[in-house]
Amino acid sequence: MRIIYAMALEISIKLNEQMVLSLEDISFLFENRFNTKMLINLERHILSLNNFRVNVATPLDVILNLVYLEKELLESNDLKLHLEELVNETLPLLHYTMSQYSLCRKKYSSIGVAAICHVMQEV
Questions:
Q1: Torsion over CA of 14, 17, 22 and 27, rounded to 10 degrees?
Q2: Percent of the chain surpassing pLDDT 90
Q3: Which string of DSSP letters, residue by residue, matches 54-122?
Q4: Domain boundaries, the chain
Q5: What tens digit of pLDDT does each residue of 15-61 get?
């Protein structure tokens, strides 16, 4: 079971971090009980079980999920914008934020929430 956790960690690191935990490193951690071919097959199996849906959520994904989850609340607050317009108004902020290196390295959830709060405040 620990090898599955290690491979899940390896996949997560690959997607989210600057450095990479190599399969040789994982093999070494487990005293070479698993060769790299076995680890490649395990990684492929884990990814296929998830239908290869392992992309990191973007700030826009955060906004879309937030609007969907809070749809009733947002519609009941007499916003001057429809929900689609609310999301569309966040796009320039997201484009700007993601073009600025110091900002785009922040948590995507924080960027999404900040953008939607800014638009709601301006309305």
A1: -90
A2: 24
A3: -PPPPHHHHHHHHHHHTHHHHHHTT-SS-HHHHHHHHHHHHHHHHHSHHHHTS-HHHHHHHHHHHHHHH
A4: 2-49, 59-122
A5: 777 677 888 988 898 888 999 999 999 999 998 998 888 877 889 99
Task: Tell me the pTM.
Answer: 0.55
Judge whether 97 and 103 are in contact, CB under 8 Å.
Answer: yes
pLDDT at position 37 is: 92
pLDDT of residue 114: 92
- The set of long-range contacts for 109-116, using a CB threshold of 8 Å and a minimum separation of 24, is 109/57, 109/59, 109/62, 111/59, 111/62, 112/59, 112/60, 112/61, 112/62, 112/63, 112/66, 113/62, 113/66, 115/59, 115/63, 115/90, 116/63, 116/66, 116/67, 116/86, 116/90
Nearest Cα to Cα of residue 114 among 34, 59, 49:
59
